[in-house]
């Protein structure tokens, strides 16, 4: 710091900030900028307009501007916009050389800038410096050959200048770089504008080799078709099919080829093309192909052709399914059904052979159930459609050789084979087949089928032998015993049939013994052997005491036309009632009594009906506690029980119930009786003849004993008072005093008795009320538990119903989504087709415009 005369210079004091707390209203930088914008503080006034009047001022102006541009360039050489502005300003002053120099300097800085080259070449073209422009375009396409804009501008300039050869040369140089498709189309359209069709064809040949796509081959073929070269167009399509082969086929190529032939009225060729394509393209890639094929057949084909289209489509679908899963036998069945309707036998046989070659991988019968029907259908087709019995026999034999009979077999296959042999009048062969089947794998169905076969042939001796074999194989089968006995009955040998039935019921184990016994009884009834029938019923009742047996026995006795049939029937009912008395199933006993009651109503008298009516049980509703599987309490359940009058085990309970009802009725009338009996005891003198009130029959022992003791006490007191009064007649005063005391004691005793009785009545009434309330509460709780259980079951049903509804709704939503996806896919395909058509129309319009321009150019040249 500088010094002065007064000394050192003083530094001004800075005001100290006392309050350093933040201000209440904070101001942000955004608010400051907004305020400056609103007040327009940074807007500078426009510079004054300068009018140049002489050359000196113009030179000064140029120098100033050039200095400014040069300064900007020095500051940042890489900003190409500064160079372009500088060059355009020089160009506006017609200083072409200076502008050219600026562009060259800029290219030294960044020679890969596309805008710089374009501005440079446009400046030269505006200045009509053609050679300079050509030089710039040559340099640009040499340095940046992949920038298509340079090529387009260059060729357009040459064509506008009328330099067709030069333009073609530029196109050739461009094609050496194998550019994108639009560049080739531009070259082809250029040649077509000058009617050079052959050269266009040559360019297309190179184009489809550089860009080997289906759409380019189709464009090539349409180019030939448009210019009238039909043979060349067909050849292009054929070459395209050969070029892509079977590995890279595309449905669009065949659709375009078919449409081309359709326009040429070659309908047979169209049909061949469609069929060739459908045989080689997977089904999921040939949707459009099927659609166009169907449309073609509808327009130009007959009914047979349309059906062929549909059949081929379905065949394609089935082929895809069986390829995806060869063990999908349902798809094979559908495929075979389709092929059988239209194809020749060789084709059907081929499909059958392919199907039966897919054996199940596991030797389990459930996996073979669908597969074996392929063999059955194959054999039936050979027999019924082709009429080839020898081949049918081979099919049956091959299928039986294939089945692992040691693990499982199919009786249906053996029976069909035997029936086939019978249709061929080869009875010995059929018997041989069935014998082999029974020897290898005996089954119920096989034995039944063999027996039915021999029955149809009326070979009863063979049937007997087969039944014997059958019973040796399965002695517990009651149906076999019954059928064997029926056969003997039909043949008239009743003793043999009875012997068969006896052997049958003597078996230790049977699957349906009740059916066997019923058949035996019916057999004896048919033979009118009623004694044997009664013996059978008695033997059966020794084995089982089922109520239906008793009822059937009674009905049998009733059905016999004899004078004592009613007595026998009634006797059987009585025996049944006695035997079922200890039966746990009370419903069976009730069923017997109801049947007995019906019998008495129809055939009995009033006394017998009354007797049976007294035996009928009383229906009582009871409750029992339920326990869940885990041992927890599951509430209460109501059920009906039957109480039979003659059931001795239930008599105590019934007596107790009757006594309880009587006691409850007695409680209602007891206060009135007590008042009536207590009145003379209060008024009159004591009398030894007073008797105590009898207790109710249904009262408890404790109450009865208490009341008896009290009555005895009162009688003793009366006797004491009488003896005392007789002894005290000598003294009147003492007698009166004693009498008063005795009366007072009597009154006190009566009062005490009334109080005790009232207390007992109140306590008993309270106990009865509490018991009634507890019973009512239990019934209410049981009802509430039943209601809760019912609510739970309803809620479970509602939940299940809701879940089923939600599943149905989800399925419907999924179906709607799939439909919407299909519709969207269809819309997208339609939009793509429309876009392709629009693009084709645009290309055609461009070609027509180009052709019109070329024609107008030719007319101008001629003019």
UniProtKB/TrEMBL annotation:
This is Crooked neck-like protein 1. Signal peptide: none annotated. One of its GO terms (cellular component) is nuclear speck. Involved in pre-mRNA splicing process. As a component of the minor spliceosome, involved in the splicing of U12-type introns in pre-mRNAs. Pfam families: HAT_PRP39_N, HAT_Syf1_CNRKL1_C. The keyword Phosphoprotein applies. Residues 738-857 have a biased composition (Basic and acidic residues). Residues 81-365 form the Pre-mRNA-splicing factor Syf1/CRNKL1-like C-terminal HAT-repeats domain. SMART domains: HAT. Its main location: nucleus. Belongs to the crooked-neck family. Residues 668-863 are annotated as: Disordered. It comes from Sparus aurata. InterPro entries: HAT, HAT_Syf1_CNRKL1_C, Syf1-like, TPR-like_helical_dom_sf.
């Amino acid at each position: 710091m500088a010094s002065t005369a007064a000394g050192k210079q003083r530094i001004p004091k800075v005001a100290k900030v006392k309050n350093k707390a933040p201000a209440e209203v904070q101001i942000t930088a955004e608010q400051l900028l907004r305020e400056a914008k609103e007040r327009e503080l940074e807007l500078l006034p426009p510079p004054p307009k300068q009018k140049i009047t002489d050359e000196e001022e113009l030179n000064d102006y140029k120098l100033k501007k050039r200095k400014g541009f040069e300064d900007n360039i020095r500051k940042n050489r890489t900003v190409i916009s500064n160079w372009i502005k500088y060059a355009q300003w020089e160009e506006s002053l017609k200083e072409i050389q200076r502008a050219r120099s600026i562009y060259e300097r800029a290219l030294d800085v960044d020679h890969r800038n596309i805008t710089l080259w374009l501005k440079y070449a446009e400046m030269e073209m505006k200045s009509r410096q053609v050679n300079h422009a050509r030089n710039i375009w040559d340099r640009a396409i040499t340095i940046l050959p992949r920038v298509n804009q340079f090529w387009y501008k260059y060729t357009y300039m040459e064509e506008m200048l009328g330099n067709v050869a030069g333009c073609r040369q530029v196109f050739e140089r461009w094609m050496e770089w194998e550019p994108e498709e639009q560049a080739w189309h531009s070259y082809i359209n250029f040649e077509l504008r000058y009617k050079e069709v052959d050269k266009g064809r040559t360019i297309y040949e190179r184009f489809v080799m550089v860009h080997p796509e289906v759409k380019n081959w189709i464009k090539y073929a349409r180019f030939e078709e448009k210019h009238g070269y039909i043979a060349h167009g067909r050849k292009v399509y054929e070459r395209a099919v050969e070029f892509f082969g079977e590995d890279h086929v595309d449905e669009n190529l065949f659709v375009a080829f078919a449409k081309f032939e359709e326009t040429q009225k070659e309908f047979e060729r169209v049909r061949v093309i469609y069929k060739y394509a459908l045989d080689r393209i997977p089904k999921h890639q040939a949707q459009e192909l099927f659609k166009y094929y169907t449309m073609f057949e509808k327009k130009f084909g007959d009914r047979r052709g349309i059906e062929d289209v549909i059949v081929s489509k379905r065949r394609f679908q089935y082929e895809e399914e069986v390829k995806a899963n060869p063990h999908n036998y349902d798809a094979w069945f559908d495929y075979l059904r389709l092929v059988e309707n239209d194809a020749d036998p060789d084709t059907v046989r081929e499909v059958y052979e392919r199907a039966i070659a897919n054996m199940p991988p596991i030797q389990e019968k459930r996996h073979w159930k669908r597969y074996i029907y392929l063999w059955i259908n194959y054999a039936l087709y050979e027999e019924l459609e082709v009429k080839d019995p020898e081949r049918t026999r081979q099919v049956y034999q091959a299928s039986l050789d294939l089945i692992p009979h040691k693990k499982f077999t199919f009786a249906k296959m053996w029976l069909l084979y035997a029936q086939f042999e019978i249709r061929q009048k080869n009875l010995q062969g059929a018997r041989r087949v069935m014998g082999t089947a029974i020897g290898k794998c005996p089954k119920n169905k096989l034995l039944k089928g063999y027996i039915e076969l021999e029955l149809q042939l009326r070979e009863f001796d063979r049937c007997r032998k087969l039944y014997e074999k059958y019973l040796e194989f399965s002695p517990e089968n009651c149906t076999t015993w019954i059928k064997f006995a029926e056969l003997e009955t039909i043949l008239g040998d009743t003793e043999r049939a009875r012997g068969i039935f006896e052997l049958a019921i003597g078996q230790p184990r049977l699957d349906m013994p009740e059916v066997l016994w019923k058949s035996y009884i019916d057999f004896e009834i048919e033979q009118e052997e009623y004694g044997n029938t009664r013996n059978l019923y008695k033997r059966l009742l020794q084995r089982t005491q089922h109520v239906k047996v008793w009822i059937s026995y009674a009905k049998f006795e009733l059905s016999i036309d004899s004078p004592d049939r009613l007595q026998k029937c009634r006797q059987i009912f009585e025996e049944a009632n006695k035997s079922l008395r200890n039966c746990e199933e009370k419903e069976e006993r009730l069923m017997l009594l109801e049947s007995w009651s019906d019998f008495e109503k129809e055939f009995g008298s009033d006394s017998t009906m009354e007797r049976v009516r007294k035996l009928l049980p009383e229906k009582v509703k009871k409750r029992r506690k339920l326990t869940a599987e885990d041992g927890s309490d599951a509430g209460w359940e109501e059920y009906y029980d039957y109480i039979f009058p003659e059931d001795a085990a239930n008599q105590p309970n019934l007596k107790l119930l009757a006594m309880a009802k009587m006691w409850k009725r007695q409680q209602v009338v007891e206060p009135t009786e007590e008042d009536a009996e207590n009145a003379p005891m209060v008024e009159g003198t004591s009398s030894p003849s007073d008797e105590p009130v009898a207790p109710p029959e249904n009262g408890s022992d404790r109450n009865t004993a208490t009341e008896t003791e009290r009555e005895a006490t009162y009688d003793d007191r009366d006797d004491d008072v009488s003896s005392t009064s007789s002894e005290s007649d000598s003294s009147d005063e003492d007698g009166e005093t004693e009498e008063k005391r005795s009366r007072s004691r009597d009154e006190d005793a009566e009062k005490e008795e009334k109080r005790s009785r009232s207390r007992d009545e109140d306590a008993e009434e309270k106990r009865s009320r509490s018991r009634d309330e507890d019973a009512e509460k239990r019934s209410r709780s049981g009802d509430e538990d039943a209601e809760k259980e019912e609510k739970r079951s309803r809620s479970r049903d509602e939940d299940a119903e809701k879940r089923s509804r939600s599943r149905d709704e989800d399925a419907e939503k999924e179906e709607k989504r799939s439909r919407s996806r299909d519709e969207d896919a269809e819309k997208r395909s339609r939009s793509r087709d429309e876009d392709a058509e629009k693009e084709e129309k645009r290309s055609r319009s461009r070609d027509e415009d180009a052709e019109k321009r070329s024609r107008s150019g030719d007319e101008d040249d001629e003019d």
